[in-house]
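Justification of resources, computational component.

The compute hours requested in this renewal are based largely on the per-chain cost of generating structure records like the one below. Each record pairs the submitted sequence with a full structure-token output. That output is archived, and it is also reused by downstream analysis tasks.
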Amino acid sequence: MPRSYPNLITTGLACAMLAGPQQLAGLTARLHHAAGREATRIDTLSQVGMQVAASAWPAFAPEALAQLLLAEPSFSSAFASSSPPTLRGYILRAGKQRPAPLGLHELALPRWDTVGDLAHWLGIDINVLDWLGGNAAARRKAALANQHYR
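The structure output for this chain reads:
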């Protein structure tokens, strides 16, 4: 999908829609949060989201949903109006471990859906894991005692 204003805004709205379960009230609330309370056409976009198969919803790509939203004539025509749709905030999906790729799918791999799960499996505090995986440039600005592994 090309990087145009309508595509970027619509992808942001699609990410908001996909950040939770496929329920009409939830879709509408997430869209209002992302687009702002004064946004119009939210009900139409929520209905488009409800047309996606429930079994496909958890793994549905934001770009694919954005294309469905842009295919809605009343929404796509809004970008040519004097007050085009905007994005007021982002809502992203919670991190989740995806299934292992072919070739590794038969192995007994640990499941880490959150960073906390990984830290627990490693037997370290989540703050230590954050420090270990943190930005080295920012760590160099810290006090000398906090710049090195302990």
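The chain has a mean pLDDT of 85. The chain has two domains: 5-80, 95-150.
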